[in-house]
Write a sequence for this structure.
């Protein structure tokens, strides 16, 4: 009697299990890369919002009033809430400006923080 050529059921099941594990790992790695690139996009666009706030003061060539201001900005198709704190410095010709940029629904985690000094 000749033995039939081919794979046994156990061999096929083991191969399918290995293939399933490999595909699940690949899908998880792809998801992690996608999440990371979206977070990087938010941080980069948030940094641009903060830089634009500082650039506005530089372009106006006047000292900003001390205190806290808030607003909403759109950058790269993303919505952000910015909060800036302007404070005095020992040198009266300069003001310290700290800009924090948040996602609209999470005011506890800033996407970007920028501290700069503005003068006349």
């Amino acid at each position: 009697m000749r033995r039939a050529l081919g794979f046994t059921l156990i061999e096929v099941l083991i191969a399918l299990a290995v293939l399933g594990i490999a595909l699940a790992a690949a899908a998880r790695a792809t998801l992690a890369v996608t999440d990371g690139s979206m977070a990087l996009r938010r941080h980069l666009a948030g940094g641009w919002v903060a830089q634009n706030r500082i650039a506005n003061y530089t372009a106006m060539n006047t000292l900003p009033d001390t205190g806290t201001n808030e607003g909403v900005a759109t950058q790269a198709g993303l919505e952000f809430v910015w909060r800036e704190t302007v404070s005095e410095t020992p040198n009266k010709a300069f003001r310290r400006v700290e800009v924090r940029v948040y996602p609209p629904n999470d005011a506890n985690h800033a996407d970007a923080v920028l501290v700069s000094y503005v003068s006349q």
Notes: The first strand starts at residue 67 and ends at 75. Residues 9-60 form the longest helix (52 residues). The helical segments are 9-60.
